[in-house]
Design a protein that fits this description.
The chain is built from 19 helices and ten strands. The protein is α/β, with parallel strands linked by helices. Bound molecules: fe (ii) ion.
Length: about 500
């Protein structure tokens, strides 16, 4: 790689990189362009050129096509891959014109057929640099939108999506007042989410004008911009409206309208234009699919909650002795999880798993489930299938995937003598070990086909004896501490509220 031809160009000087393997030609181009006032850098092949581009702000690359180590076409591919932004003009002979045309398809700005005179070259470069500035500013906008999309992608809550949208709009469209209304999809069902700026917050006339426009935009599903450049001044429309210009856009997705966003600028400020409105439409258009996906996932979780509740009810309808068991196990497991300091999301998993842990009993014959006397070894083998059947049922619901290990392992023993896998100690998932203690305690303190209900004190004794054998001793200790006043803990009812499980 040869050093830059000019050492200290003025700050606004355009930088051109010449990539040419023939030293005499390289020097000739460098000298001619240097005399035109450009800052010139040079490289002998595509590989060296990439090094120069990585370390320097280059506006334009002037390159040969056939070069050793890395030719022009491969260099161009790398420039695109690495997200570098200079315009590239190729210098080509008839022998490589096909390759030059191919380079245009790959994003090259232009090519110049050899032999050419220097005046032709200067004109092409000047033209490209002039239009390239415009393209680069568009490129900047594209990157801005890409980064906005990236920020939206990280959100899983509609309030957060709205926040990202408002931040973006505030940064790029400089409103002096901003309002956001969310929409449930039913006509007229708008709720204000955000109102900012003195003209929207403090001026009743402006606010009532705004509501009218929002309703209009919602009704027509069309954006509007109002300002002097459109021949209509906002203040002409209503006495006392303080805005100088405004842009109002609906947030429209594939399945409906999710809200309306309104921006205002005060009188005397640069008014909003159609180009601003177009940008606003781009931002809301990007946000809408994210809102759509979040809302549909919330609806799905609502359905999941209903499925969970009806599954549990189906099991309890079959097993007359365990009515209310799932709900109590769910409550105890959640309390125990809280006592052990598990994360909120894990509490949600425990709560759901408590409801669903015995779902596999749907596949167990009624005669075995409701047998008043002890089970025969053969019958017990059948009963032992319920965690596996449960796992198979739950794993079909994608939003419940984190519940599956708890359902599958809730009958494992701490010493490895449980089922279905015989895992022991820390190999059994922590939440399944918690669930197992809650399940055991609930069974002991309830009337079953094979025993009367124990008192809390008696159940604590059984749990203590089983600690280290059937149950994790630390979890048993935490639960016994919770039961220190020897009364059944109060649990909140499971109402099938939307589960925060994705
Ligand atoms: Fe069970």
């Amino acid at each position: 790689m040869t050093p830059p031809h000019t050492a200290m160009p003025p700050p606004d000087t355009r930088h051109i990189l010449i990539v040419e393997d023939e030293p005499a030609l390289r020097e000739a181009y460098a000298e001619a362009l240097g005399m035109q006032g450009y800052a010139v850098l040079t490289a002998a092949n595509g590989e060296d050129a990439l090094l120069v581009l990585e370390g320097n702000a280059v506006d334009l690359v002037l390159s040969d096509l056939k070069m050793p180590r890395l030719g022009g076409e491969e260099m161009l591919r790398e420039i695109t891959l690495r997200g570098l932004s200079p315009a590239v003009i190729f210098l080509t002979g008839y022998g490589t014109i096909e390759s030059a045309v191919n380079c245009l398809k790959l994003g090259a700005a232009d090519y110049l057929l050899k032999p050419f005179d220097m005046l032709q070259l200067f004109k092409k470069i000047a033209l490209e640099l002039a239009s390239g500035s415009c393209l680069r500013s568009k490129g900047g906008r594209v990157r801005e939108i890409e980064s906005f999309s990236e920020r939206l992608r990280g959100q899983n809550d509609s309030a957060e999506v709205f926040k990202v949208l408002l931040t973006q709009v505030q940064r790029t469209l400089a409103p002096q007042a901003m309002a956001l209304f969310s929409c449930s999809g039913q006509a007229g069902a708008l709720s204000p989410l955000f109102l900012w700026g003195p003209s929207f917050r403090e001026c009743p006339q402006t606010r009532s004008w705004l509501l009218e426009k929002v309703a209009l935009v919602l009704g027509q599903c069309g954006a509007m911009v109002l300002g002097p450049q459109m021949g209509k001044r906002v203040e002409d429309l209503r006495e006392g409206v303080r805005l100088g210009s405004a842009a109002v856009v609906p947030i429209v997705g594939m399945r409906g309208v999710y809200g309306v966003l309104a921006l205002g600028r005060d009188q005397g400020s640069t008014p909003y234009t159609r180009e601003d409105l177009r940008m606003l439409n781009v931002y809301t258009g990007h946000a809408a699919p994210f809102l759509e996906s979040i809302l549909s996932s919330q609806r799905f979780r609502g359905i999941s909650a209903e499925v969970v509740t009806s599954y549990a009810q189906a099991v309890e309808a079959k097993d007359i002795y365990t009515r209310g068991h799932s709900e109590r196990v769910s409550g105890y497991a959640t309390l125990l999880g809280q006592a052990l300091g598990v994360a909120d999301r894990d509490l949600e998993i425990l709560r759901t798993a408590g409801i669903l842990h015995d779902i596999g009993k749907i596949g167990i014959p009624d005669g075995i489930l409701n047998k008043p006397s002890g089970l025969t070894p053969e019958e017990f083998e059948i009963m032992k299938r319920h965690p596996v059947v449960g796992r198979d049922i739950i794993s079909r619901v994608s939003s419940l995937e984190e519940v599956v290990p708890l359902v599958y392992h809730h009958h494992e023993w701490f010493n490895g003598q449980g089922y279905p896998t015989g895992s022991s100690g820390a190999d059994i998932p922590l939440l399944a070990r918690i669930l197992s203690v809650a399940d055991g305690f609930e069974a002991l303190t309830s009337i079953r086909s094979y025993h009367e209900a124990m008192t809390v004190s008696q159940a604590k004794q059984v749990l203590s004896e089983g600690a280290g054998r059937q149950w994790d001793p630390e979890i048993v200790d935490a639960w016994i501490w919770q039961l220190r006043d020897d009364t059944l803990p109060e649990i909140s009812e499971f109402k099938g509220a939307p589960l925060d499980l994705r």
